[in-house]
Amino acid sequence: MPFQIVRGDITQMKVDAVVNAANSSLLGGGGVDGAIHRAAGPGLLEECRTLGGCKTGEAKITGAYRLPCRYVIHTVGPVWRGGGNGEPALLASCYRMSLELAEQNGCESVAFPLISSGVYGYPKEEAFGIAVREIEAFLAGHELSVTLVLFGRGMFFGRDRFADLDAYLDENCTAARSVRKAARHMGAAFSKPAPLEDACAAALPAPNDAALEQVVEELDESFQQMLLRKIDESGMTDAQCYKKANIDRKLFSKIRRDAHYRPSKPTAVAFAVALELSLPETDSLLEKAGYALSRSSKFDVIVRYFIERGNYDIFRINEALFTYDQSLLGA
Q1: 21, 113 in Cβ contact below 8 A?
Q2: Is 198 a catalytic residue?
Q3: What is the DSSP letter of 80?
Q4: Is 233 in a helix, a strand, or coil?
Q5: For residue 56, what is the DSSP state?
Q6: Which CATH class is domain 3-157?
Q7: pTM of this prediction?
Q8: How confident is the model over 197-203, as a mean pLDDT?
Q9: What residue segments make up the domains of the chain, in order of their start?
Q10: Which member of 33, 166, 220, 313 is catalytic?
Q11: Closest C-alpha among 101, 132, 103, 137 to residue 115
Q12: Cα–Cα distance measured from residue 67 to residue 10, given in angstroms and rounded to the nearest whole number
């Protein structure tokens, strides 16, 4: 997908370029900077000595040496001094200039750490917000795959930012638990929780011939056909749609060519979000791909929460999904 968030070690990322949260000397240091220099080996330090340092908010590029990538882009983030000394603009510049440098050097993929959020003391939530905003803005006009790499589970902020969503999850997961409890009480053996849709479908009468014929007719439109029809109806171009859906251009081209293409569920949901479909419309699109939104799935309930509230910001939705350890929307 064009933008994803992962937990991991940036020195292991197999991308065209990794971004180093460097100090102004570019001669190595602690945290991400030290880890990248250790993994790259002495050749990186030797090249950095020829660059004459780097100003805060700017970026410079070197080879990657022993790292599994082509380049290292070094950028110097601001030290947090309360936020009134130009820190937000400088941090935004780090992302913007690094992305521009990656593109200028023919990179198709780049991985960032959360710049300035370590020893430089930038509050993680604010640093994350700036990172997402700048990456999103850049990707709106460029074809590039960007990964934000967060090291360890403890470095990300907590769920208190999603208090309303927490309450919504508690309320809407209760019904699913009740269904499973009732099924167990009746002697049913479950290897995994059954979606509410399946439980409800079991109680429905068999369709008559006329109803069956209508169902067959509705199945004639594939996921691809319905998606392309919805894009036309929305007035968006294909590029506007797949970018808004956080979908790679190559994947979209594959979907357009194959009338019987079956996407993953996160991809199908991403298109529903990009098209700003209502819940019934989302259900119809997902049905074409063989999926449904269940109240027994945390991923599904989170998606429902945002759609019900008319919030179709895919980056905000992915932030919530990431926080709750769910798959992200996109390809």
Answers
A1: yes
A2: no
A3: P
A4: helix
A5: B
A6: alpha beta
A7: 0.79
A8: 41
A9: 3-157, 181-323
A10: 33
A11: 132
A12: 10
